[in-house]
Amino acid sequence: MAASSYTQIASAYENERPLFEALSQRIDGALKRDLKAAGVYSEISSRAKDVGSFVKKALREGYDDPMAEIGDKAGVRVIVPYLEDVQRVEAVVETICAIEDREQKLDALDYDELGYLGVHLQLAPKPRLLSGQADLGPDAPELSDLRAELQIHSKAQSAWAVVSHDLLYKPPVESPEEAKRAITRLVALVELFDGEVDRLRRLIASDPNYPEMAVAAELDDRLLQFTAHSPDRKLSLLSVPFLVHLYECPPDEVVGTHIEPFLDMNRGKLEAIYEAYADDETANPLLTQPEALLIFERLESDRDRLREGWPVDTLDFELLESMALISGIEL
Amino acid sequence: MDLGTFFVERIVVHEVPRNTATTTPEGIVYSDAPSPLDSELRNFFKEKMTRSLIRHGYAVEHDPQQKSPVPSLIQTILADPDQLVPASRDIARHLYDSQPPVSNAGLLVAIFGQLEREACLGILKLEREDAIRVEETTVPGGGRTFSVAHLRDLMLGKHTRLFKASVFHLPGTELSSLDGLVSDDQRGYDPTTEVATFFLARFLGARLRTAPDVATKSFFEATQGWIESKVAEPEKKARYEIALLGEMNRQSHTLSPNSFAKENLDTADQQGFRDYLAEAEAPTSTIEKDLKLVASRVARLSMRFAQSKLKLSGPPEDIDRFVTVNSADSDGAPVEIHDQIDEISGGG
Fold first, then answer.
1. What is the ipTM of this complex?
2. Within chain A, which residues score under 50 in pLDDT?
3. Angle in degrees, CA B151, B92, B138, rounded to 5
4. Do A117 and A255 sit in the same domain of this protein?
5. Handedness of CA A90, A91, A95, A99 (dihedral sign)
6. Domain of A178?
7. Are residues B94 and B146 both part of a single domain?
8. Residue B81 has pLDDT above 60, yes or no
9. Which helix (H) or strand (E) holds A46?
10. Pick among A273, A306, A330 to test the B interface (most B CBs inside 10 A)
């Protein structure tokens, strides 16, 4: 490739880079919003490849048509706590982008090889990503022709990727073979770590109370909007299974179907309640528990079954009466 | 009125003696400043008032026929919370002037706060058999105020008398828009009772928002409408109809739709019933019962049977006492009459 062509390519990419920047930011914003709505904890970062890196990659790899062949000009990285979250991320991604290519890095390794792990997706934006955004401007039609690369890592995979990159590529001298081997050995721990975490999560999920208590865990996040107190999980166990059974839907639909609309309708009232009780050390202890949101919602919608079924053997009825008083409802 | 949105901001307490031939208004002990408050005390009064108002609260409005200055004083405080102390002193003075000699000495507690995100004013009268003595404290600058922490302890004590409570807000600018709830933990509002009349009418200058006879008729008709349109099983319809007529004929001055639901309806039906009442704009909170407009309709209950077309008719209280209507899935007969035959006669 002639030297002049590199300057042309650098110039061509420089001209188009703002579009890739716009695309990566849109994917970043949409994923932050949609993953939060789907209850997937994640850390998301994005960037458009800088011009220098683009040119160096073109030089290093010897591409005939770097503009077409370099796929990560717009790049987004999603880091999730657990390996099993990767599929949930992909499901959300598919609502905003078409997945044109999926590369599971583990699949590329032979059984006796160890190396970089994670999932890379080649994305084409769907109209949903490009529509309905006030800031879209005149670049929308052009964005639809661009592609972006999305990397999804578990936290352990990400940690290894960062450390190995720093140790292998950043030192001023070539890393010795022993160091390379040690870094490669570490990736085995990553595989073991993620595998064990998944096994433990399945073990925990086999607890008979798990589906109901998972609702409490899901509500922790919503409660944080009103109070920063840490919930007591054992206290939740005394009422959450009963409360979740009051809903005539599967436990995993309770928050989305009932609690979210309730919070949307009553946010101002709940904010005022939590502000009034923020410094009150004698306040009802259930108020700072995730089950408070279930109790408030049921007081509005089904107070009679709530009252009749309240687990008086384990939780004083006075606690429920007090929650009713706080929300201004006659029990 | 959503009492879950009621929050306390400032409290002023004045001591009001009994108004007898031997006392004078000079006996009133006024506060010069709001009482010191923290979150616990604010929430204590919020919950104490809410408890009283949701259980026994009547919806009230300004009564222009009354000469009470209280509605205007409420308006003054709501417009300028800094007027809480001087205006509440005038309220305390009017309490002294308007209360009958039989009324106990007590404390006038004025509470400025928020209700449905608007300024509101709560007015409480606390009484005890033995006159309440609340600790006085001095505010910076030398004025007097009362310790509401001590007041709370008195209210938590076993010998504390129940109290009269009210809360008002002003959605518009005119007194005609004054909207309130008034409760009396000591008794219901019987218009023939002097104590109640004094507190609601002479003292607060308010009246019930809906006349008791109209509210009673509205509850009765809405409940019958719900039974007719929402209850499918005939035996349940009969059970609920008997309960309704029993409630209407019960010797009580008040009627609580929520208590009626809790005591007589299946758990699964209670929320639907309350929702129906609300949609029909029938009373959902406690009302004064007055059968004037429904007397003839609650005097007798009739049942007609499906196959035989036999008809059973009588005063609701007798049917309630001697007739049992069983649910379809019970082992017993659909209808049981628990009585001895007294007389049989033929003829056409």
1. 0.79
2. 1-4, 134
3. 50
4. no
5. positive
6. 3-201
7. yes
8. yes
9. strand A43-48
10. A330
Examine the domain organization and report whether B153 and B41 are in the same domain. yes
Contact A328 B5 (CB under 8 A): yes
Query: What pairs with residue B15 in β-bridges?
Result: B29, B107
Out of B43, B55, B261, the one facing A283 most closely (by C-beta) is: B43
Name the residue range of residue B40's domain. Answer: 3-208
Tokens of B268: 């699964």
B162: which DSSP letter? Answer: -
Residues of A in contact with B264 (CB under 8 A): none
Q: What are the Cα distances from residue B52, in Å, to B47, B124, B127, B136, B287?
A: 9, 11, 15, 26, 14
**For range B229-246, the mean pLDDT:** 87
How many Å lie between the alpha carbon of B65 and the closest alpha carbon of chain A? 32
Please identify among residues 286-315 of chain A the ones whose CB lies closer than 8 Å to any CB of chain B: 301-305, 308
Does B254 touch chain A if contact means CB atoms closer than 8 Å?
no
pTM here? 0.68
Domain finish residue from B165, B187, B208: B208
Q: Number of structural domains, chain A?
A: 2
Residue ending a domain, among B188, B208, B228, is B208
Q: Do B137 and B25 reside in the same domain of the chain?
A: yes
Residue A32 and residue A152 share a domain: yes
What's chain A's length in residues? 331
**Three-class SS of residue B92?**
helix
- CB of B185 within 8 Å of a chain A CB? The answer is no
Q: What percent of chain B has a predicted confidence (pLDDT) above 70?
A: 91
Mean pLDDT of B78-87: 96
